[in-house]
Each structure stands twice: as C-alpha cells, then as structure tokens.
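tool_call: predict_structure(chain=1)
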Amino acid sequence: MKATYDAVVASLRSAGRPVEEHEDEGRAAIEGYGANGDWMMVTQVYGEPRAVAVYAVPHDRVPPQRRQAMALLLCRLNSELVLGNFELDLDDGELRFKTTLEIGDDAPTTAQLEQVIALNLTTTDRYLPTIEAVVAGTGADEAWQSSDQ
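tool_result:
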C-alpha cells in the first residue's frame, strides 16, 4: 500500500501544487480547479478492495433546503455517466464526484493515475455550473436540461 500511496502523491505533485499528505490514513489532497471553479481533490488509497479513489469536493456544502433538488440532479447526471459518479451526503450536504482505479498487487502506473485524475478534473469542471445553479435555487430538471449532457 505504501508504494501505491507514494505513486499517488508523486502524481499529485506533478501538477505543481502543494500536496496535503496524510500517509497514515492513505489520503492526500490538492486544490483542484478548472475553467468553471475550484474544489478540493482528495485521493484515498484502499487496501481492500485494492483501489485508489479520487474525490472532487466543492468547498461549499449544499444547504439543507436544496439537498432534495441536488439529489435529483445527481441521479440524472449519474445516469449519463459511464465512468465515475456523484455522491451527496444528505446529513451534512457534502457533495463529491468520485472516480476509482482498481489496482492489483503492484503500484499503479503514472499513466493510470493521470487518467483517473484527469477524468475527475474534467467531469467536475464540466458539471460544476449545473451543480452551482441548483445550489442557487434553479430546479433540478431545469438545470439538467440546460446542461450540455
């Protein structure tokens, strides 16, 4: 697991941004950003199943009065996605986009890690305006229909 964690941290460092490391928890984070905003990108190395997960976590939580609409939007968005999925913690409003990479006994390659990280960044950036519209009060169906699915 250490070799996998080290490979993940090296991939994050290659972006040229500071890496917040929590090796004892198998977690590392950087500030993620795109054309439509910024968020925390958190990576988690799991022992069983042997996998690396990449989470994009917007800085602001979904307020309680918007969580039902957000849950509906995320169901619609997830139905269109082939890789990755959106998650919403209904108790605290934390929203995440998760991509995963199943790994074997060897550490993942740089190319594998770059691919799962890039997919996370581009998908989050693509849907961030739609998500922010629902947080701001737009209905889930209206936001989904106006997104570039």
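agent: DSSP finds four helices and six strands in the chain. Proceeding to next step.
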